[in-house]
Amino acid sequence: MSPSLELQCVADAVQRENIQRHDALVCIEGLGSLLYVVCKNPKNPFFNQYLYEAVAILLLALLVELNRPPIPPTYMQIFVIILSPVSWKTASNVPALVRLLQAFLKKAPNEISQGDRLTKILGIFDALIQSSSTSEQGFYVLNTVIEIDTINAVQPDLFSVILTQFWIRNLKLITGDIELKLTAVASTRLICESPVLLDSVSWGTMVDSIVTLLSRQEQDKVQDENAGKNKEEPLKEIRYPREFFICFIVPTLCTFPWKVSKDYW
C-alpha cells in the first residue's frame, strides 16, 4: 500500500465529502504530531513503521466509511490489496485491516459478491480464527458478512456454507470462559431454532462440539479469573451455559426424536 495511493485517497475523500479545509488540517496536524513524537525515537524503527501502517489503514477505513456508494475505483484498488494474505501477516495491523474490510463490506456489497472475492474474505476469517490473538477480529469479519443482505441475496446458501465450512469446523477450538459462553449459547440456539441446522446432517456434529465446549468451560473459567477479574461478563441473564443447553436441547429432542439416531451423530 503505497503512500502516494493513500494520499490520493485522502485528497479524493476530502473533495467528495466537502470537508472544510480547517477540519481537514486539524485532523492531519494532530496525526502528524503523534507520528513526530514517535519518530523521535529511532531505536525501534519497526514499531514506527507498524504504527504508520496501522494509522494509515485506519484513516483509509474512515475515508471509505465517509464515502457514498458507489465506491470510486481508487478505493477498490485498495480493496483488492487487502484481500491478499500477505496484507494480513503483520498481527499489529489486523484490527485496522478488519475495520477497513468491514467498511468495504458495508459500502460495496455488490462489488464484493463478484468473482472469488467473497471466498477470499471467508479465507481471511478462517486464517484469523486460527490464532487466539486474532480470533475475535475474525468473528467481526464474519458477523459483518452475515449482516449484509445484498451478499446473502446473491448467495442464498451463504449461511449454510459459513456454518458447515467455518463455524462447525472451528467450534472446538474456541478458548476462554467468556468466548466459550458466547459460542455455546449462540450454537445452542442455532441447533434448536435454525431450520437450516434442524434439517442438516451436521446437527449431531455441532451438538458434539457444544458438549466439548461446555466440558472445558470450568477449566477455562479458572484460567480467566486468574488472568483478570475486571472483565465484564456478557449475557448476564444466562449464568450457566450448561443448564441453558439442557433446557433447549431436551424439548428439541422431544419434538424431533429421530435426531437421537446414530445417523445424525
TrEMBL record:
The family database entries (SUPFAM superfamilies) matched by this protein are listed as: ARM repeat (SSF48371)
Q: Name one GO molecular function term.
A: small GTPase binding
Q: Which InterPro entries match?
A: ARM-like, ARM-type_fold, XPO2_C
> Which Gene Ontology biological process is one annotated for this entry?
protein export from nucleus
Which residue numbers delimit the Exportin-2 C-terminal domain?
Answer: 24-58, 59-147, 148-229
Q: Which GO terms describe its cellular component?
A: cytosol; nuclear envelope
Q: What domain of life does the UniProt record list for this protein's source?
A: Eukaryota
Provide an example Pfam family for this protein: CAS_CSE1
What's the name of the protein?
A: Exportin-2 C-terminal domain-containing protein
Task: Please tell me the species this chain comes from.
Answer: Trifolium subterraneum
